[in-house]
Amino acid sequence: MSTTAEPGDHQIAFFLQVYRDHDLAAACLRRLRRVYPSARVDVVSDGDDDPRYPALARRFGASFTRGERLYALACGGRLHQRMLDAFLAAPVPWLFKIDPDSALHRRFRHAPDACAVFGTLERRTEGSGTVLDPPSVQGGVVGFTLEAARRLRDSGIFLSRELLDPERSWACCPDMVRRAGLGLVSFDFILRWACMRLEVPMVDYDEVRSMWREEVRNPGLRYAATHPHKRVPRWDRLRLAWSGLLRARASGQR
What we know:
Blueprint: E1 3-5, E2 12-18, H1 22-35, E3 40-46, H2 53-59, E4 63-67, H3 78-88, E5 94-98, E6 103-104, E7 110-112, E8 117-119, E9 121-124, E10 131-137, E11 141-145, H4 146-155, H5 174-181, H6 187-198, E12 202-204, E13 208-210, E14 225-227, H7 234-252
Parallel strand pairs: 2-3, 2-5, 3-4, 8-12, 13-14
Antiparallel strand pairs: 1-7, 5-11, 6-14, 8-11, 9-10
């Protein structure tokens, strides 16, 4: 697939969904802003009422929306629809959906310029070892070209009632059947199902390395973005602790 040269800040939007992971989100946003100081960033709470999120978003020049919890099985693909609706309200050439435990290390050197969903292709599930054909794009860092985002959103496929029956739609392996049994959807596998139905290409992207749980090494900054990073860096932990102490003192003086 053909690619374009390094995207500028004004050509990229980042979508960060948060749920009970304030400290990880803070570390993620700090890293992101070191690399993309002026790119658009949308932070959406998936039903988490933590009062610290609006201030966190303001600190890093991001928008914040307090959304309802959409990871529940009964919500089907509304999680995806919400993200694409937000992105297409003010579209730019590329959207990157990032998890709070992802990390940006440097700028992307190139990006696909045709219709595609892109990232690290998962050809075998990390849990049961089920072979995936076609593969899934691992959900820690997922890219969408504008054309792909529009095709997926405008189709209404994420609102399909078929998604309410996981084993007949997205739950194609024992890992996902277990997840559905817990009452949760899978971002990755619902996206895979939708791309298959609409024939949206899912392509490997060598600027990203995203795994489910396996630690990712990044010698020489080979990758622009990696996932997962479950540990909050020590310096960020100290910053957060100090901020909490200052807030507690301020509250006590009122």
